[in-house]
Design a protein that fits this description.
Layout (H helix, E strand, L loop, with lengths): L2 H6 L9 H6 L3 H16 L3 E4 L7 H11 L1 E6 L5 E4 L1 E7 L5 E8 L4 E6 L5 E4 L8 H24 L4 E5 L2 H16 L8 H7 E5 L4 H21 L15 H4 L7 H22 L4 E4 L1 H39 L1
Amino acid sequence: MSDDNKIGNLFWYPEMNYKDLFDKPDKGLMLQSYVRYFLARLQSMFKYENLPDTIPEKWLENYLMCNGHCGIIRADNGGLYAVVGALGGECDEYYLPKKYTVANPYLKTKNVYIRDEDICVIFNDVYIQGLLPLLNRYCMQLVENDITLNIADILARATIIISATDDKTKASAELFIKRLRDGDLSVIAEKSFVENSLHINQFKEVTDTLTNLIEYHQYIKASLYNELGLNSNYNMKRESINSNESQLNDDMLHPLIDNMLKCRKEGIERVNKMFGTNITVDFDSAWKVNEDEEHFILESIDDNSSDQLDIEDDEGGDNDETFN
């Protein structure tokens, strides 16, 4: 299987061992692992109510996030199913494809459905991209940094390199290292041995490199979580930050996930209208908590603004009476 197919096929589960990860790292395998773990986390983003038993929530979300779209059809057995197809055919006035081609051997269907006539198509986002382009970009950066971090970690073991000009010196150097490992500090060398036959090369400290790589790793993850609507601040100042500083990026958390929720609600509304269902969708888990907290803050701001206006009106009325 080619590397491109490894990256694109989420249902390919290879065996992975230590050598795959570090000795001869396979970037395709590591990228697959990262993407699948993030997709597993994102299964908690939305919650559906009243979904038919024939449409598992996990596969509906998997189709939307990985493909950017999916269709809902009524099969010959009368059940509703979520299916993956291909957009194409003649376009409407906004250049959106009118046809949705579905091929599902289990449902024994290989037909060209007309969008919103024989099938209801739901989009993940307004540009029908899904989340794989976003996840692949950030996860590829994580993979590259993992490999670099592992190399830097291994090099940190070698703070010096001891070189010898002859076999006798080499044997003495090995004995010196062995006795140091054993805790014996009784090795003494002649001055000529140290100056003429033994050479020690000092390695550059890699502590700063490891620190920078760890910070970069956290920065990539924080950026990805922020794209996905979760506040994961990366502290560039290397010191504690206050609550106001931690909320500086709150505004950037919502546009993408709000658009995803809007597209799902519009698609589910069409499904309910076409098939007579009563399905609902909303945020769930941490995304729901963040939304509730934001609404509470906005309501508090509105209440405080109203109270302030009332106070100003009362003070204005008192001044008028005093003036008269």
